[in-house]
Amino acid sequence: MNQSFETLLTEHQALEIKLADPDVFGDQALYLELNKKYAELSPLANIARELIELHQRLDEAHVLIDDPDLGELAQADILECETRIAALEAEFEHLTLPKDPADARDVIFEIRAGTGGAEAGLFAADLYGMYEKYTARLGFKLELLDSNESDIGGFSKITFEVRGTGAFGIFKFEMGVHRVQRIPATETQGRIHTSTATVAVMPEAEDVDLNINMSDVRVDVYRSGGHGGQGVNTTDSAVRLTYKAGTPDEMVVTCQDGRSQLKNKEKAFTVLRSRLFEIERERIHRERSQNRASQVGSGDRSEKIRTYNYPQNRVTDHRLEGEEKNNPLESVMLGNLEPITEGLKALERLELLASKVSA
Q: Model's pTM, two decimal places?
């Protein structure tokens, strides 16, 4: 293993030398590419460097194990080295697990009210508020793209973008059906109702990811709707894209929350590309995992992933187990999603390790 660590350190040092080369620095595309690779290798190089030193210490301690004066100290040193080596090797293995290249991307969210009528729309609005707070906690940027708001403040559908490093890797676990159990404000007999909302989370696609045949897209512009005030446009700035109209693959995307028609059109195409990109990702995922059930979740939007129980002040994520699956509802709705996200990330790592072993 030391030999592979030495190779890694040699590659890391070679990148460091290249990055210091003025000619490389002058080529921004090349510099950014090399700098990204250097940043990816750096944590692995740090672990490799420490592991090489620990193995040297371990060898020296084994030589002294039978020394009458130093044997006891050598034994303690062996135990310390072996404990640290085991921890670093586990960390190294986690860092070298295959990564989804989409994890680093920005994301497009689509929340749709499900069963439950007006209450489902209010729940969709609550979920949007939760993600808005979580996004702010992470220091990411959220931009509203499109929304269909009800008279009582809910949403039948809301689409928004979240920008930040590793956004998809964090938010991808939110895809699926979210269920709420609570007494609606309109309920006069105090009965608990169950409503749902469906959350779609898509990595933001780029032009290079897929080529959209423009002859398949109809572009319509219209005046933005709203409930009055400064947010209502007086120009035809809203954009509707209809992809493959009249076919089983028909897809409609609208964007009306920006004041610029050009920007709305650009954002609508971003959403369309992201939807098509995610459809292709889902197809590939199904092919790769058809022989193995996923604990984290299939990524299917119809899968029930979480229940928000208001009477019991509890949020339960159905993919986790034990006490880890339950969190205080009030805290979660304030955007404190880290315990859930970290638990699902850990579960994903265990799955990847298991698939690596069985491969």
A: 0.74
